[in-house]
Structures are given as structure tokens and as C-alpha cells.
Specification:
single chain; about 325 residues; mainly alpha; DNA polymerase, domain 1; hpI Integrase, Chain A; three-stranded antiparallel β-sheet; 3 strands; globular
Length: about 325
């Protein structure tokens, strides 16, 4: 796909559309954490649409996209296939909006595809604790010690807060409220929320900031909390590589499936398993609708049965 040749139609994608397709590939892999077969399908669907365009995707009007979807139905594609393509294109235009583009397509006017909800992959609380406790934090070489402690503080915070990776990377030093033991998170659409953070996670964060952040910062002027070797804010791909390498180093069985969003899914699931109500989890995650949060109640049927047996008067 990086060559710009459409594997589906044989046409050459416009340079802007090719660049956005590559960016979308990264978005659904790292930010959204979609399953590999879903990534392949979404990319093929979006590539096919872009290959039909003789203009940048941002200039394609809503009516054109709706007509394109209608044409797919007319050629005899199954309802499920059209729904998947619709979902892929909706995700693509949402990606453009998140990238600061202003597409002519009005995403709000696109009907949502009605497909069965995919239950997110999560780690058990035991798996998560074992993984975090297994992260190394010391090295005789100061530059390596700085990176190890950064990784430890970052991954502890990612699980403790349930932040999206984009929110983690946008975290500024002044967003940490030590006395209140909360952090200010800037979410989608510029909306802010305040998330409490467990004391252990704050302890690691404080240690990293006190001992090693300035070593990484060098001459950079950034206020980002988590920095790379060059002193600049980490990238989403950088976070993904850190998590994957840490999982591989520990030899855990789920290393091949790891992605940053798994920490967010695990955070929500473990809260609900611990008795938190959906409204609380919705607020902590920054979900606009509780329907989005509802998926986490589908994750552990055994836990729900156990809780029902424990709490319902007629279950005894």
C-alpha cells in the first residue's frame, strides 16, 4: 500500500489519499487495536473507496459516499459486507477529523453499521499485576535506567488511569495534581476530565520525574511528561513498541496480541469486576454515551453469575 498502487483496482491513489491511508493503517493498529483480520479488511475497504476518487478524500461530499455505499448494495454484496465497508469508511473519516482535517463528509450523517459488538481483549487482574511487577526499573547505565523508569511509570499510569494512548502522550507536567492524587486528562474534542490515580502509580511517576525526566529532556522545551531518547514527546508507535518489547521480554503468552488500548479495556473491566457502577466507569473513561461503556459488562459472564449469586435475594 505504501507504493500508492491499489491492490483492488490497479489504480494509483492520489498522494494525499495514499498518505492518509498509511496513517489510517497506523491508527487502527495502534490506537484502536483492531484484530489483524479486521485491519486487513478495513484497509482493503478504504483503499477501494480511495481508488475510486479523483480528488482528495477530504473533498468527497456526503452524497458521494452514500451513493458509493448504495452502489455496493446494488451489485449484490451481502448486508454484512456492506455494513463492514460502511464501518471502515466511517472510521476512516473519523480518523481524518482526529488528525485535524475537515472532511466534506459529515460523519454524523453516516448511519452506524449494526454489527455484533466485538468484546475487547483484556488481561486478567493477575496477568496485569504480574506484567507490571515484572518491569525492570534499574540499570547501571544512567541513560538506560532513565528509559526503564520512564516505561515503568508510563505503563503503571496507563493502567491506573484508563487513559487512551493519545491522552497519555498529551499529558503535561502541570496536569498532575499531587495533593489531590488526580490527573487532568484532555480527551477527544478537547474535553477535559479528572481521573484519580492509585498511590503506587503516582510514586513511580514522581520518581521518574524527579530522577530521570530532565536527563531525557536535554535541551527540549516540551512540557510532555513522557519523553523519548531525543527529549521529545513519545509517539504512539513508540508506546506500542515499548509495551510489546516488555511483554516479549517477560515471555507472556499474550505478547503477540498486546496493544496500548488493552490497558484501557483492562482498567474498565477490572473496575466493574470490583463493583464499580457503569456511570463511574463512563466518567473515568470519558465516554460520551454509557452505551459505549456497556460493552465491558459482556466480558466476564462467570463474574456476573458469581455476583448475581452473591447479591440477589432469590439466588440463595
Amino acid at each position: 500500500m505504501s507504493t500508492g498502487d491499489s491492490a483492488v483496482t490497479g489504480r494509483v491513489l492520489l498522494p494525499k489519499n495514499r498518505a492518509w491511508l498509511n496513517g489510517f493503517c497506523y491508527y487502527i493498529q495502534v490506537e484502536k487495536g483492531l484484530a489483524e483480520h479486521t485491519q486487513v479488511a478495513y484497509l482493503a475497504d478504504v483503499e477501494h473507496f480511495l481508488a475510486e476518487l479523483t480528488q482528495p478524500a477530504t473533498d468527497a461530499p456526503t452524497d458521494y459516499l452514500l451513493g458509493y455505499l448504495a452502489d455496493l448494495r446494488e451489485v449484490g454484496l451481502s448486508v454484512r459486507s456492506v455494513a463492514r465497508k460502511q464501518s471502515a469508511l466511517r472510521s476512516f473519516f473519523i480518523f481524518l477529523v482526529l488528525e485535524g482535517k475537515t472532511p466534506a463528509v459529515q460523519v454524523d450523517l453516516l448511519p452506524s453499521a449494526k454489527l455484533p459488538r466485538r468484546v475487547p481483549r483484556v488481561l486478567s487482574s493477575q496477568e496485569m499485576v504480574a506484567f507490571l511487577d515484572g518491569l525492570p526499573t534499574e540499570d547501571e547505565r544512567p541513560s538506560f535506567a532513565a528509559l526503564l523508569l520512564r516505561n515503568k511509570a508510563m505503563l503503571e499510569l496507563l493502567y491506573a488511569s484508563g487513559m487512551r494512548v493519545s491522552e497519555l502522550l498529551g499529558l503535561q507536567v502541570h496536569d498532575i495534581m499531587w495533593d489531590e492524587r488526580v490527573i487532568r486528562v484532555s480527551g477527544k474534542g478537547g474535553k477535559q476530565r479528572f481521573v484519580p490515580v492509585a498511590g503506587q502509580s503516582l510514586d513511580w511517576l514522581k520518581l521518574y520525574l524527579r530522577l530521570h525526566r530532565d536527563r531525557l529532556k536535554k535541551h527540549s522545551r516540551t512540557d510532555a511528561v513522557f519523553l523519548n531518547r531525543s527529549g521529545n514527546a513519545l509517539s504512539r508507535m513508540g508506546v506500542w513498541k515499548i509495551i510489546r518489547n516488555a511483554a516479549l521480554a517477560q515471555g507472556v503468552s499474550w505478547a503477540a496480541d498486546i496493544h496500548p488500548h488493552m490497558f484501557r479495556h483492562s482498567f474498565a473491566t477490572h473496575l466493574i469486576e470490583g463493583g464499580a457502577n457503569l456511570r463511574t466507569v463512563q466518567t473515568l473513561l470519558g465516554h460520551a454515551s454509557i452505551n459505549t461503556t456497556q460493552v465491558y459488562t459482556d466480558l466476564d459472564l462467570a463474574h456476573l453469575v458469581e455476583e448475581h449469586s452473591r447479591c440477589h435475594p432469590r439466588a440463595r
